[in-house]
Amino acid sequence: MPRLAPQLLRHARKIDPLLPLLLRPCRDLVSAQNELRWLREHAIKTANNSEKRSRIAGWRTVLRQLVEERTTGKPLQYILGTEYFGDLEIVCYPGVLIPRQETAASVTHLVDLLRQAEDLPSELRVLDLCTGTGCIPLLFQHEFNKARHDKGRLRLLGVDISPIAVRLARYNHMRLSNMRDLQRQERQMFKPGRDNDKKKNIAKPRYSTLDGTEDIGAGDTTEFMSADVLMDPLSDRYEMDAPPFVAEMNFENQPPFWDILISNPPYISPSAFNRTTTHSVRVFEPKLALVPPPSPGKSDEEQGDSFYPRLLTIANQVEAKLVLFEVADLEQAIRVARMARDSDKWDGVEIWRDQPELESDSEDEELQEEFEVVGQGNGRSVLCWRGPATQWLGKPASTIFTRRTPKKVWLLGQELEES
Amino acid sequence: MFGTPWVCRPCLLRALRPLSRRYVQYQTTASAIPDSISPALLSRARAIAAEHDQLSKKLANGFDARAAKKLGEFSAVVNALKEWEKANESLKELNTLIRDPSIDSELRELASNDVIATTEQFAQASHALTTSLVPKDPFENLPCLLEIRPGAGGSEAAIFAGDLLRMYQAYCSREGYRTSMLKYEHAEGFQESLQEAVLEIEFEGAYGRFRCEAGVHRVQRVPATESKGRTHTSAASVLVLPSFPNNGGSVEVEDLDDPDSDYYIDPKDVRTELMRARGAGGQHVNTTDSAVRLTHIPTNIVVSMQDYRSQPKNREKAWQLLRSRLAQARREKREEDMVVMRRNVVGVAKMGRGDKVRTYNWGQQRVTDHRSGLTVHDLDDVMGGGHTLEKVMESVRNWLMERDVETLITIEGDETKNKGKR
Hints:
Chain B: This is Release factor. Chain B: GO terms for molecular function: translation release factor activity. The structure holds 2 protein chains of 2 kinds. Chain A is built from 19 helices and 10 strands. By secondary structure, chain A is of the alpha/beta class. Chain A folds into 2 domains: about 70 residues, no CATH class; about 240 residues, 3-Layer(aba) Sandwich (Rossmann fold). In chain A, α7 packs parallel to α8. Chain B is α+β, with helices and mostly antiparallel strands. The relative contact order of chain B is 0.10. In chain B, about 45% of the residues lie in helices and about 15% in strands. The longest helix of chain B has about 35 residues. At the A-B interface, α3, α6, α7, α10 and β10 of A face α7 of B.
């Protein structure tokens, strides 16, 4: 990491004496200023709300403590206690992975695609494995209800191995639904009898509706449970506290079949964990949520990928029509996409980049020969579909695999592996 | 003889003096509009009334949203015209009564008494008709964005900009308007100084109320930064933009998707940049960078927003700001064209950003508005957003209305003249 220029530090000190401290984790002035502002707002808020001691000490003292905490590299999200995931404010604390913007972009885009779908089932079932803060099901529900007012209930289930995460996810669910109730009451108080405007809102472009949460989603069910996704259901070794996924599903009386499977599993290989992750991720975020557990006889790369075969198996068991997995980069995306294609169970596979809603800039054409790559940025997620989901997404019925000759794909694969 | 043996001389003198001159009003703030209405305006009002009749016939056959809207706009003019015609009629009748020699003196006296009241009524009706003919600002019923920036005067100007912001905030909270701070940037140095602030006033009709505030506000005082006690003159600029209500509020505005609207932006023309760190992304980093930058390519207007931690919210606000700025630019351009077209017809003193509109003088505790010419001396109340500020703002609104009426009369008169020549 390059040294911070003394000139920059001097300049920062002139603006605010606390700013040089924040430059250490932030590395640039603009984001340091932003973080200082957010921390100041937070300090003022907590100083007013909290017990007497800190109120006497004043918010400046609180702010100083917060900045010093941040200087150690502790993520701002843990200090402030929340992170924005799409439109939603999600509570997060140490021990649970902080939601990432890229995940929100993928989920939002998926719901945007589903919004045009004609024949969704009357109860759409969405299963999220390795849910963490519960951000994916909660955002899915929020976006889905924002888009569609007409029909369909949602059944959402988030699964995580960590009981802390499950507790937090339940708390987040409760907090968001309370907030939604409050907003609804407020709206009803301020604007009585303006129901005919609702129809107008749907037609408008998405960026003009900030909080389209209407009084819907009442029939939806959102649940979270603790289970181990990776454990083979047939083995009877109980290493962790959590029971295996399938057993727990039966035990909790959950329905056996699900329409959509989303997952943001641990996907960083041990070597990438040491090389590419930032300091604050490595030190402060749970390794359990980042790196898959080691198993004998697996290479570094295989360990990074070890969740995906299991997730694909589960997708087959629950007969998911649509699957969205987050991945680390384009190489892993291609590996996962090949796994899905080689299983011969899917009608189509697609790779999404960081911003899948944007037009893709087609610079690497050889990749597009093998799989469709959508959007801009790094390779971020893999989408597989089959059966009725083909129509939900508006894809042509016969896709990709008939168009692309397997021989060429194989050759290309070899080339990629060599390079 | 007298009840009191001695009265002090000043008291006696004061008793002898006529009523104090202070209470006598020499200037009037009543409008300088003549009682009678210019024939050009009258003919125009009649034309509108004719169109109103046609429209209502058309509406009787079938509903048309656009026609209904237009009808609503016209009805004020039509009502005013009816009032005016009634007053005109009765005035004429009374006059003939008075002049008629065959009528007995008792009735004539009654009539002449009535004339006074009717003349007054007639003047009122004329005034109402003229003001109803003045075209309303199309954005009058919108919430607005108030942008405050320091002008000439260094850190003192920045401090004054902060003062202005607090003044408007206090005013809004006194009037009960909801506000939200869209953007707030500290200047270097003093805590209360301001680099740029955008305040959204979420009250329908806020634009009509605040649009007179736009312009350069001048301050004369001994700044906090001054060590030798000299008075400085600095300035801060205030920009008022109509704000598009998000979530389709109750105010009727032109449709966003309507390409003719000022607010229309083709999404293809806008480049969105998320200023996100390059690198692995995903689980590898936990960045808090939520900045959004929008560039409108045809006009090269750039809006960047990073105040909120939520990226969608930043994007939302950036779009709102971009839309407002673009609409303002388009409107300014159109108005500029109009001014060029009419310059030889009307001597309009163009109210640009260059001219100062108001002076706040701390030494004399005085606030003077240079457009309406009103001077008030309760500076503290003005800076506290109190009733005096409302008084000043109202005077400017009246001034603007009068100016509009003058312009209208001149233009209409000119047009009828031109017609006559042809």
